[in-house]
Methyltransferase domain protein (Actinacidiphila bryophytorum), 643 residues
Amino acid sequence: MRIGGVVPRGTGLVGAGMAVNAAGAYGHLALAGRGLDTTGMAGLSVVWAVAFSVGIGLFFPLEQELTRTVAARVAAGTPTGPLARRGTAVAAGLLAAVLLLLAAAHRPLTRLALDGNSALLWPLAGALTALAATHTLRGLLAGHARFTAYATQLTLDGLLRLTSATALLLTHTHSPTAFTLLLTTSPLLACLPTLPAAFPSLTRPHPPQPTPGPALPRTTPQDAGGRVPGEIGWGMVGLVGGAVLAQGMANAPVLGVKGLAPGDAALVTALLCALTLVRVPQFAVGALQAGLLRELTVRQQRGDRAGVARGVRRSAGGMAALGALCTVPAALAGPWVTQRLLAAPPVLGHLDFAALGLGTTGYLVAYLLGNGTLATGGHRRQALAWGAGAAVTAAALALPGSPAHRVEAAYALGSWTAAALLAARLIRTLRVDTPVKGAPMSDTASPDYTARLLARRLLPTQAPYRWNLRRLRLGRVLDVGCGVGRNLRHCAPGSVGVDHNAHSVAAARARGLTAYTPEEFAATDSAPGSFDSLLCAHVLEHLDAAKAAALLATYLPYVRPGGRAVLITPQEAGFASDATHVRFVGFAELEEEARAAGLQVRRAYSFPLPRAAGRLFRHNEFVLVGAAPETTAAPAATAGRQA
């Protein structure tokens, strides 16, 4: 399967295993529907919803992180044993925490969700344990590219569930506990044959695996046996938070109706069966998961923003089309299929299935957009998007109408809210003028950096900054770090730009501006004191303090005595947006460096928004206006590539 030019390795194998696993899940529900009464089936439905909401929300992010970080170590030829141990420890810690919470809340959970059947708490705990084990195992398998073993685990899980449920039905077992225990026994037994493939040569270095495209940064030898920064760290908090919220939304219809109509077991069962049917496209997503995130991450690290955008756009668009295609037959035949094959109570109609299909399509589109968000380093933004979706879901439950219609509307509104926010974030992140987070950024002298500057000049957001520059009335300006001339073109006639990037200087000249490299400027007849002002905008943050001081010492003597010097640097959000920034330069640093250079500070202010906006709005700037010394010093040796 081709997704926007990204062909995840192992998709075919994992897809086949996912199909068998799906058949096992459908068969498990269908056979349980025939062996259990309505109350028993409602209990199974709640355990199913809680286990997969909490379990997948906690442990699927761990699978994603293990896949990503193990693959990176394998590619770098370093041992993966430390990651396996850390991943296992994190899984055990998360499992212990959720089991303790389950034990503490067992009384209200039994009373409110399980209709007093406390025996179902044990299968619930077992299902959570199984999910912890299987997702940890799958992360290691995918990271080592052991997709045959990955597919084997899925296949065995599905077959064991189907055969075990068949055996329970043939032996006339009518215990909801027995049918629910299959969520524990089947996945755990399916893990056993694949353990050797998940833990191969964990303590030996792997031979480096060549990959097409630019070389990626590799683990340093001192990090080979321990943890590399960024491996299963605090980013997991955002991943887990987002996944828990996403799973809560996915199961909102079942869990929501338990709160709105706690005694309606038939509606709970019917909703679970309907969701099982309309989520057929989910298995296509599952088949892609083992490889898609890895491939998008590699493209992101190489700086292939177009490839990431194309892959996300086509995968999400394809899922939207597939969801719509599946929603139509589900709406037409859903009531008949679930009643005949899954023994669902006849309480839902065609419009109910259409609404659930719409919500599922939005959820799966958001899920794939989330892969792109993670690949571009948006762990926190993904969690915020799912949080907003969950908030909309919760608010929509208060809408007027029957419990079924309320949970269906809440599911659809919440899912599409999350999808819209994730799409908006990706559109902004993958714009050509946005730096690639996590990618090896070429330095500010590269052609790529010039291309980014040229793209930025097309944005209408530059208007306020042009106005700010003009109102300062700087006269003839020496623009140090002029780039492609974004500011220089709005300075007075006779202004001159200097930049160490020869490509940017050429671009500025092509626009009719006077610009030089530092070496070229030093060879001109520009005399000390020949400029009215010096402008140094978005330069100092690229330099350490010593180089910044040398830069100012080189060019300030060209400003007439008493002339102005304007220093501009980005605030927090802007600083974090560019991988070439090396030092945060705020008001305090600007004033210190200005005074050290002999400038008299006249004023310092935040532009265009108040200072507080700088943590969120990346175009907010620190602006310092100073006066040059009244005596002209001889220019220092040219700062070379610092300008």
Q: What stands out?
A: Confidence is low (pLDDT under 50) at residues 1-7, 201-229, 432-442, 457-461. The chain has 23 helices and seven strands.
